[in-house]
């Protein structure tokens, strides 16, 4: 008959999956003895894999990634924290409270794992110290969780201590547990200590999988010891028949190290080698090459890698495109950069605002020699405004100049109004071409509006703007307006030398000339 007392792990029912945790097994001086099959992990962290639904055993944990389970974990941890917040002994309370009744080491491991997943590392370690209060003996799963907990807290020395204590007690760690420890050491730059652990476990006869090797490769590459990483990689490749294997992540780690020290061509050599032995490159593989060539100032090689991705049926991500686009812009490959931009927009990626601004300015500058590019600049500029983005001042100024070159003075004035709306300070130089353009088209009122816009927003009107307008007003016989504008200029200390100094209206009336 089932026990009426609710166990800790039963709070998570019915979300069980059969999961083997990183564990220790009795070695009994048999180094070839197979350890408990570990859970599948990456070089950075545990990742729980699903399998068929079965009843739990001592080494089975729950699917902590399930949404409902996460909510129950959160509630459980909150209850435990509330029990321990009043300086009570949580172990004593858990023993008395039926909701948290712990009867087996499996129950206790579920509790520790819940605290670990919830990042309650201190509470997890406190509970571990209270294990004897439950009259329980830690098993392989318990120690694995504690090692992981120390690693998450950056206490890798403590994690090493737990590992060596367990070894002294005759237990043998599996590859998954070693991976977590080596990865933690490498991420903190303690590659030498990681190699010590690695070599020690190899001497102990532990059959290490590819994951600990990959962690070590990444650590060596990160600190620039790339040649050592290559040596280990070649050794892994030779031992493929011994079930060690080598995967694309192994190559990615070493390729990244080579690219970071300016040896991208050698990295490409490793890429070709990986293809030859049947490995399938992923987006990280290609992005590594793109970033390497970009650092070395070789943007066209970056573009070549982008095209290579499509040949290998690998879909480029936003990082791939953005890195290529940045490199092309940096080294002034403008036509190719616009092509990459068009491709990004066509796919649906949002291009960084600063890169769009750079692209607009470079296209405008190049359009002085290649007139067709001005339409491309216009397209990118309008896209920036359609996204509701506040365009940087320099980009707007360049586009105003470009509109003036094409006699599109209405568009130029509209962008000057946008500058006012976005709070940019206005400079007279942007207005000179607009005012001259309007005057050249006989649109003197629009030219006056441009001048008033500059003056009303605190801009300093220069002599050129005043002279152009005074001359145009004189030419059209609007002498009163010309005289008024002439007086405004003098009041502001601007001395004008117009083609003809405007005279008072009475002067023209006395000569029979209508003003």
TrEMBL record:
Keywords: Repeat. Belongs to the PPR family. P subfamily. This is Pentatricopeptide repeat-containing protein At5g41170, mitochondrial-like. InterPro entries: PPR_rpt, TPR-like_helical_dom_sf. It holds the Pfam family PPR_2. Gene3D superfamilies: Tetratricopeptide repeat domain. Signal peptide: none annotated. PPR repeats lie at residues 139-173, 174-208, 247-281, 282-316, 317-351, 392-426. It comes from Cicer arietinum (Chickpea).
């Amino acid at each position: 008959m089932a026990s009426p007392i609710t166990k800790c792990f039963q709070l998570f029912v019915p979300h069980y999956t059969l999961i083997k945790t990183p564990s220790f097994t009795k070695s009994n001086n048999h180094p070839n003895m197979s350890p408990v099959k570990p859970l599948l992990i990456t070089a950075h962290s545990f990742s729980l894999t699903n399998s068929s639904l079965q009843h739990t055993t001592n080494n089975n944990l729950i699917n902590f990634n399930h949404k409902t389970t996460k909510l129950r974990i959160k509630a459980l941890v909150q209850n435990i924290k509330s029990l321990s917040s009043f300086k009570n002994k949580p172990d004593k309370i858990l023993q008395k409270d039926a909701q948290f009744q712990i009867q087996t080491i499996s129950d206790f491991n579920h509790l520790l794992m819940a605290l670990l997943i919830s990042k309650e590392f201190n509470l997890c370690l406190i509970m571990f110290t209270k294990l004897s209060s439950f009259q329980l003996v830690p098993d392989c799963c318990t120690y694995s969780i504690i090692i992981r907990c120390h690693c998450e807290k950056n206490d890798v020395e403590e994690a090493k201590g737990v590992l060596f204590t367990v070894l002294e007690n005759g237990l043998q760690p599996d590859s998954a547990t070693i991976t977590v420890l080596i990865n933690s050491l490498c991420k903190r730059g303690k590659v030498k200590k990681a190699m010590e652990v690695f070599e020690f476990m190899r001497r102990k006869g532990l059959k290490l999988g590819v994951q600990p090797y990959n962690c070590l490769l990444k650590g060596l590459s990160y600190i620039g010891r790339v040649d050592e990483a290559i040596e280990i990689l070649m050794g892994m490749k030779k031992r493929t028949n011994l079930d060690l294997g080598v995967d694309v992540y192994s190559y990615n780690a070493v390729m990244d190290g080579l690219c970071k020290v300016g040896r991208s061509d050698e990295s490409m050599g490793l890429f070709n080698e990986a293809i030859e032995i049947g490995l399938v490159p992923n987006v990280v593989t290609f992005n590594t090459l793109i970033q390497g060539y970009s650092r070395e100032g070789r943007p066209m090689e970056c573009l070549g890698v982008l095209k290579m991705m499509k040949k290998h049926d690998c879909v480029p991500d936003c990082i791939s495109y953005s890195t290529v686009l940045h490199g092309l812009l940096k080294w002034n490959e403008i036509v190719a950069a616009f092509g990459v931009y068009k491709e990004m927009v066509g796919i649906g990626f949002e291009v960084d605002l600063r890169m769009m601004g750079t692209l607009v300015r470079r296209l405008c500058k190049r359009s002085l020699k290649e007139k067709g590019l001005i339409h491309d600049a216009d397209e990118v500029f309008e896209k920036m405004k359609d996204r509701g983005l506040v365009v940087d001042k320099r980009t707007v100024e360049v586009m105003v100049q470009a509109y003036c070159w094409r006699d599109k003075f209405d568009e130029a004035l509209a962008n000057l109004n946008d500058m006012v709306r976005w709070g940019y300070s206005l400079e007279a130089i942007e207005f000179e071409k607009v005012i001259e353009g309007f005057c050249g088209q006989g649109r003197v009122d629009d030219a006056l509006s441009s001048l008033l816009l500059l003056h009303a927003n605190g801009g300093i009107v220069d002599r050129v703007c005043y002279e152009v307008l005074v001359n145009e007003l004189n030419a059209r016989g609007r002498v009163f307006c010309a005289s008024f504008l002439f007086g405004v200029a003098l009041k502001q200390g601007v001395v004008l030398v117009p083609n003809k100094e405007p005279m008072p209206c009475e002067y023209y009336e006395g000569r029979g000339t209508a003003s």
